[in-house]
What does this fold into?
Amino acid sequence: MVDLGFRMLLHDRTRFTITVSGVAFAVCLVLAQVGLFNGLMDNAALTIRKSSADLWVTSRNTANVDFPQTFPENRVDRVRSVPGVARADNLIVAYLNLALPSGAQESTIAYALKDFKAWNLPWAMKEGQVEDLRRGRNLIIDDKAQRRFGAFRTGEYREVLETRMKIVGQSTGALSFTTTPISFLDYDLAQSLQPTLLGGRTTYTLVKLAPGADPQAVKAEIQRRLPYNDVHTRDAWAAKSESYWIVNTGLGMNAYLTVFLGCLVALVVVAQTLYTSTMEHLREFGTVKAIGGSNWDIYAILARQASLAAAVGFVLGAGMAYALVPLAARADLKLLMPLPFVAVTALGTLALCLGAAMLSFRKVAGIDPGLVFRS
Amino acid sequence: MVVLKGEDLAKTYREGRVETPVLQGVSLELRRGEIVALEGPSGSGKTTLLQILGCILTPSSGRVEVEGRPLHGAGPRELAAVRRASLGFVFQQFNLFPSLTAQQNVEYALNLKGVRDPGAREQARALLEEVGLGDRRDYLPRDLSGGQKQRVAIARSLAGKPAILLADEPTANLDSRVGTQVLQLFRDLAKREQRALLIVTHDPNVRSVADRVLQIRDGRIPDA
It folds into this structure.
């Protein structure tokens, strides 16, 4: 079969390049923007998803994991007494000031527990042992903090709230939405650093369910016994933490707007170039009709051209977006492009290009084959 | 055997309130293997008649029959089907697809008529051999001379073995020598395969290849 659509498209290489560039630019924009958004959202609930807690007890109306509020720590006893609870421990999440060798101060989000291993926090260590946190005024800092805190090594000392602490290890991969570096320290030590705020108080209670326990039933019972707290399942708490940033910062709107603009740019570029191309090839389409072709034969040519522009544009655009991944990583940004999202973008690109061809469909439907007799 | 018949054909164009009659009761018949030249000055209605006989335009009144099939009331889809099955066209401007090679131009017409590879490829090759362009199969139209382009157009018109060939001023863009060669070739091929050929022309050379010459004046053919 002679592929007239393909030949016609490649015959005018400049126009083909413009069409494909428009699609590629839009695809890259959508993939990179949404990938960045996904990366930020992943950070927003990373510690929630990585910890092994099935339920999180929070202070009433706590909006997200990075904005903790305190409540009495002895409420953990009531949680432990609920049937279906295998284990419950308090977790303090608090912003602490850390003095750099330069004399400057930087913030760190400290996660404080008595038994880190039991809750899979931190979930990956680059150096050191998490058990060392129980052995004195010790601190584990995530390796991503080097960007904000400057270079540091295990065994060095830093002052946290004017208390000299030893860095006993470095975790890796622990990130927060705000990019404030995460550190880990002992629960009692965290309380001693801020006795006024944290004495006898905690910010979260982590709950592990007994095998076979119904999460919703246990959640409801904890909620009944702690009417002045909120109780969330892991997924619900992660979703709440993420939606806080999406809704309250306009990040979601920004992402949607960029995706919309990306699609609009592609739609306009493809529609315009295909339409112009159709106008310039009217005589050829008239010839197709005159020698016995139907409107459907011409629609097939245009659809083929739109599909080709979509396919080539998508491959180039996706290639560009994937090339941005290591560049973004250098700036501590994650571009997360899971396969289903990439597949949906590919289908969207095809649908968009075919949609753009509709304008040309309308034009060719009315072509008079008699035009081929005009000189 | 009559393969193309027009009976009492009339066509009037309307532009606002102005009506312009272009054809006024034209009748003609083409028999298998017959070559007919249709001559007439500009504006005499010859191209309109060709379009009506070629199932591209519908007449205001009158009847057209293609291979015994009356087309009265036929819709665009049926007319396209008749064009595919029974008609081959050669145009003054050649109207080849610039992005396709000579071979592909002929092959594409065969594809439209439902012939698929490898049959289409072989038939296109044979047709180009017949018009003497076997060695120019892979040339794009821009790399062919006017005469060669018209030969490709003739090969394309023969694709699918249509019973009727309609040619609109096929020599208008060719010099006299090449025009004569093209006409002779067209005649030989039409005669050999018993195709009816109607040539609309200004060119007096066409008379030399035609079995019959019709004159059209002011939308009428007095001696059809």
Remarks:
- The longest helix of chain B spans residues 176-192.
- Strands of chain B lie at 2-15, 18-31, 35-39, 61-66, 69-70, 87-90, 164-168, 196-201, 212-215.
- The mean pLDDT of chain B is 90.
